[in-house]
Specification:
The protein is of the alpha/beta class. The protein has four domains: 84 residues, 2-Layer Sandwich (Gyrase A, domain 2), CATH 3.30.1360.70; 159 residues, 3-Layer(aba) Sandwich (Rossmann fold), CATH 3.40.50.620; 94 residues, no CATH class; 177 residues, Isoleucyl-tRNA Synthetase, Domain 1 (Orthogonal Bundle), CATH 1.10.730.10. The structure holds arginine. The site of arginine has 8 residues, from strand 10.
């Protein structure tokens, strides 16, 4: 389905053309001055230059043409050359009713569906998930959902950090604690017994070993050797690694699941390992490898660089591969598996340099076709009220599972006074409200920005919060219940009776456009903003118009149709944000 401004652009373009001007001048946007008109076109200014005429005269000619057009109740030329447009009631209604009938609720579908691999989450195996992984997971998830909602084939890959030093640290520590385990013997064979690990042990071992490696040189050495031997196929280590993976992945799935985050692929850095020989030979063939202190690097600096651009290190002097190597090899893997049109990465913005280097190297080596988009979205940090990265009370790094627990408990307290929720339901509802507050609090900021984690604010029933949105849906549910109307019913709108209602209809009309923009700019905050706009317009409408007491049957029915549609629209927004709605609260 076309978006409203596409439709208007066509109509206004026709008018420009009919007046003898280029139809491309008819671009229409939502009005900057909602008090004057609903839409505007500034094409007369460009036309003035092109045709050497006064802009106002052109605007007047086009406005004159447009008065014949049924779509507008008013088309006015304003000094010095604006074209102010207001839609006719019938046109507004027809378009809103068309949106209600559309399978995608007016969200424009990409004509040529793109295959998009989204690399987000990025958890590290054996290390507990911490707050820093929160943003990657929820931003990536919402963009995956948004890309799908716009008709694309989006594939989410968690890209686990499962092949690096952290595993070596865990193996080294376990080998010192449990030297009797068979997997540490050099004659260990595949199929020999492996101990069953549990997640609590892993969560304890990694920070312990990491700390130890900083003061104990021998241990540090041992961990590096274990990493190297693992990567080079030592059988006992590989078997232990598989067990570490098994336990970690179960735990990760549980935590991501609580956030409403799921992945199509559970690949990791280790899966890229088999593509490294292919990567190295491609780099070699193109003559891109340069030796530097026994290591191999690829130069990626460009003349226009304003800041120094270090070469990419692809093989260390001890022959081991590093982060950039696995990322490059993973590009080969993705190209082979999916030939994606786009690959999108989501990590905190401190990794920007790494991705710039990787993308440049990938382009030089021709790992993907020239028109494949490689894009990096870097996000800011979640800060505490002191403006510094969020920490636990004792100053440590907060685990994601603890953060989730804290938010859900706070939601539970908040709902204590609610007359609508009782007993066991309360726990489930509190969980959803807490997660909604957390996710919306994050996603409503432009992702490049840092933001302050303010639980009281996030859980407020008023203002731009996830809680307010869930609450709005429950208010609509309760009106519909009182009216005796099923939630899934659809009723076409018959008329536009009040100004609050008109404002709400315009918000509905603009939604498809906003989804499109959110996807183009990879900015889920637009979806949050629009959801909030819809919800607050609904509140004004409901405040001004007493739906249930309305005696005019047609009007009442139309209003019920409208709130049914608003409800579906809000649910669509929440779904994109990966937020679950609640029946009542
Ligand atoms: N595991 C990494 C980290 O915790 C994030 C991975 C991001 N994705 C990638 N392809 N490098 O920092």
């Amino acid at each position: 389905m076309e978006t409203i401004t596409q439709i208007l652009r066509r109509l206004v373009g026709d008018a420009f053309e009919a007046c003898g001007y280029d139809r491309g001048l008819g671009a229409v946007t939502a009005s900057d001055r909602a008090d004057l008109c609903q839409f505007q076109c500034n094409g007369a200014f460009a036309a003035a230059k092109q045709y050497r005429k006064a802009p106002l005269q052109i605007a007047q000619e086009v406005a004159q043409r447009l008065t014949e057009e049924k779509a507008f109740s008013s088309a006015q030329a304003m000094k010095p050359g604006f074209l102010n447009l207001t839609l006719s009631t019938s046109f507004l209604l027809d378009n809103v009713n068309a949106i209600a009938k559309d399978a995608h609720l007016g969200v424009p579908q990409d004509q040529i569906p793109q295959t998009i691999v989204l690399d987000y989450g990025g958890a590290n195996v054996a290390k507990p998930l911490h707050v820093g992984h929160l943003r990657s997971a929820i931003i990536g998830e919402s963009l995956k959902r948004l890309a799908r909602a716009c008709g694309n084939n989006a594939i989410g890959d968690v890209h686990l950090g499962d092949w690096g030093l952290q595993i070596g640290l865990v193996i080294a520590e376990l080998s010192q604690r449990y030297p009797q385990w068979r997997c540490f013997d050099t004659d260990f064979r595949e199929g020999d017994e492996i101990p069953q690990l549990d997640v609590d042990l892993l969560n304890e071992v990694y920070p312990f070993a990491s700390k130890k490696s900083k003061t104990d040189e021998n241990f540090n050495e041992l961990a590096h050797r274990a990493t190297y031997e693992l990567q080079n196929g030592r059988v006992g280590y590989l078997a232990l690694w598989k067990e570490i993976m098994r336990v970690s992945v179960v735990d990760l799935k549980e935590n991501y699941g609580k956030l409403g985050v799921t992945f199509d692929l559970w690949y990791g850095e280790s899966d890229a390992d088999k593509y490294i020989p292919c990567l190295m030979s491609q780099l070699e063939e193109k003559g891109l490898l340069r030796e530097s202190d026994g290591a191999l690097v690829v130069d990626v600096a460009e003349e226009s660089d304003k800041a120094p651009m270090p070469p990419v290190l692809v093989r260390k002097s001890d022959n081991s591969s590093i982060y950039a190597t696995t990322d490059l090899a993973t590009i080969i893997q993705r190209q082979r598996d999916f030939a994606p049109d786009r690959i999108w990465y989501f990590t905190d913005k401190r990794q920007e340099l790494h991705f710039t280097q990787v993308f440049r190297c990938a382009r030089k080596a021709g790992l993907v076709p020239a028109d494949t988009e490689l894009s990096f979205t870097g996000f800011g940090t979640m800060n505490g009220s002191d403006g510094k990265p969020y920490k636990t009370r004792d100053g440590g790094v907060m685990r994601l599972s603890d953060l989730i627990e804290m938010v859900v408990q706070a939601a539970q307290q908040k709902l204590e006074g609610s007359e609508y929720v009782a007993g066991t339901d309360r726990e489930e509802i509190a969980r959803k409200v807490g997660i909604a507050a957390l996710k919306f609090g994050d996603l409503s900021n432009h992702c490049s920005k840092d933001y302050i984690f303010d639980l009281d604010k996030f859980l407020s029933f008023e203002g731009k919060t996830g809680t307010y949105l869930l609450y709005t849906v429950t208010r609509i549910n309760s009106i519909l219940k009182k009216a005796g109307v099923g939630l899934e019913v659809q009723i076409p709108l018959h008329g536009v009776y009040t100004s609050a209602e008109e404002e709400l209809l315009l918000k509905i009309l603009m939604t498809g456009e906003i989804f499109r923009r959110a996807l183009d700019e990879k900015a889920p905050n637009y979806i949050c903003e629009n959801a909030y706009q819809l919800a607050s317009s609904f509140s004004r409408f409901y405040h001004d118009n007493h739906i249930l007491q309305e005696t005019d049957v047609e009007k009442r029915e139309s209003w019920i149709g409208l709130i049914l549609l608003v409800r579906r629209m809000l649910l669509m927004h929440l779904d994109i944000l990966g937020i679950e709605a609640v029946e009542s609260m």
